[in-house]
Amino acid sequence: MAKFKIIYDRDACIGAAACAALDPKRFEMNTDGKADLLKGKETKPGLWVLEVNDLGEAQEAADGCPVDAIKIEEL
Ligand code: SF4
Questions:
Q1: Less Cβ crowding at N or C end of the chain, within 10 Å?
Q2: For the chain, what percent of residues have pLDDT higher than 70?
Q3: Ligand 1 and 63: CB distance under 6 A
């Protein structure tokens, strides 16, 4: 069972790239200027979710996002 859920609102992303700098294993900038949550699943249009056991740097990415597009939930 995964312990955390990373929830990424891609529509909210303004392309500041902080997430990709802080957590390059999970976030990568796309050519459209927005970040992608790597290995995430789009559960609703624009909303991407990834369940993980190990948060890694995801909390830093969430904290660093200027528009709060990344949320972490404990499962
Ligand atoms: S830090 Fe936030 S606004 Fe910047 S690219 Fe990542 S998700 Fe988008």
A1: N
A2: 100
A3: no
47, 12 Cβ separation under 8 angstroms: no
- Using CA of residue 73, residue 14, residue 35, residue 23, what is the dihedral sign? negative
Across 42-68, b (16+ Cβ under 10 Å) vs e yields: eeeeebbbbebeebebbebbbebbeee
Instruction: Report the CATH number at residue 56.
Output: 3.30.70.20
The 10s digit of each residue's pLDDT in 40-75 is: 999 999 999 999 999 999 999 999 999 999 999 999
Residue range(s) defining the domain that contains residue 10: 4-74
d(CA 75, CA 65): 22
Q: Is the CB of 13 under 6 A from ligand 1?
A: yes
User: Which pTM does this prediction carry?
Assistant: 0.95
